[in-house]
Specification:
Length: 156
């Protein structure tokens, strides 16, 4: 029994050691792609053609999404364009921290004012966005390429 326990312990330690070596850029890249799809696909449901807002978008912002302070038409334009712009910036890793922060604020607004019961989904988005705000876009991002060009990269 003791021998079996020791073998299991060694196997667990080996697995832990291997898994601990997964590079951060893999997480950052996967999160950038996931965040892109969440927000970009949402943005595309609000428009016809390239960026013409649908009448249904205005209806949703006036009736279902009704935000305090901001007029619904402004909110419709701002949210739709922000989802398009910031999701693409996150995907390519350009101004990743700022773009992720903007989407995190949007997520908080959605959570607080629009769909407070959807906290599980919003917490998932927030976790990915907080990682990107904190760590940046990772090794394969435009931000990193610029930092390498300027000699300021901290990636290994």
């Amino acid at each position: 029994m003791g021998e079996l326990f020791q073998q299991a312990s060694r196997l667990i330690l080996l697995a832990h050691s291997i898994l601990a070596r997964i590079p951060d850029w893999i997480y950052a890249s996967l999160m950038r792609v996931a965040v892109f799809f969440v927000f970009f696909l949402s943005a595309r449901t609000k428009v016809d053609g390239l960026l013409t807002l649908k009448s249904s978008t205005f209806y949703l912002f006036e009736n279902e999404y009704a935000l305090p302070v901001i007029p619904s038409a402004w909110a419709a334009y701002m949210a739709t364009y922000a989802e398009h712009i910031f999701s693409v910036l996150v995907l390519v890793g350009l101004a990743t921290r700022l773009s992720a922060l903007a989407l995190l604020v949007m997520t908080a607004v959605i959570q607080i004012f629009v769909y407070p019961e959807a906290y599980v989904v919003h917490m998932t988005w927030a976790a990915m966005l907080l990682y990107l705000v904190s760590k940046g876009g990772g090794l394969f991002s435009v931000d990193e390429a610029v930092a390498r060009t300027l000699g300021q990269s901290d990636q290994v």
